[in-house]
Write the structure tokens for this entry.
Amino acid sequence: MATIIDGKKTALTLREESAAEVAEGVAAGRRPPGLAVILAGEDPASQVYVRNKEKACREAGIISFVHRLPASVSQRQLLALIGECNARADVDGILLQLPLPPGLDAQACLLAIDPSKDVDGFHPENVGRLSIGLPGFLPCTPAGVMELLKRYDLSPAGKKAVVVGRSNIVGKPLGMLLSRPGPYADATVTMCHSRTRDLAADCRAADFLFLAMGKPGFVTADMVKEGAVVIDVGISRTPHGLKGDADFEGVSVKASAITPVPGGVGPMTIALLLKNTVTAWKNRILYTGGSRQAPL
């Protein structure tokens, strides 16, 4: 049986590390970090996510400023709020909860966020930094995946990594992270998607298989190489509970290590959000004395 990669336990360790950094800074007389969360509309999943983020911030000593807006909020009002958060000295990070209600331009809103406060790592400036290997905020879920590889000493260096899914949030940035130089990177990366001709063959060739499709149980044991590491980012609600993209029961027999769903990659996302917020805070307060144009 495969080693089960415990994202819940690893995320807890990361959150404790963030809390310790905050406590050290506050003890030295610094103000606590601040995270502005903007939630528009009544999407039930988004409501749950925001409550979980509020709780996580509170436990880490981060002040969360939650702006709950009606679905009728206008684009102008939303952009004005983002501008206010950009200008606030007590706000180090800004998180725009997606999806937005119909009629609102999410891309325009993301572009309006100050890149030095973009703790989600979605601003084109931070994406560009990632693509050429410069320091910047990394998208939380791909960064969480890389953290799991590091904490479990699973190095894809020199090996074949296959990423199934090409979203801007997970697939594309994960592919870039895996291919850049580093002890837990340096992989030869193949990116697969809905137009891949023989997905099963590509999956079987992978030493490290990363799944981010949102199709529960799609990848079965016959699609996985013996001894492969399987990182399942997909999560779907089914009549039988939350399921990942892999058929966990079958794939775990062949894999050498695998993330469960739930309890694998999912908890890492909030942990990395806290880590990014603490980094933004340190950039802004500890290193620049509060300058808005804090280096990444």
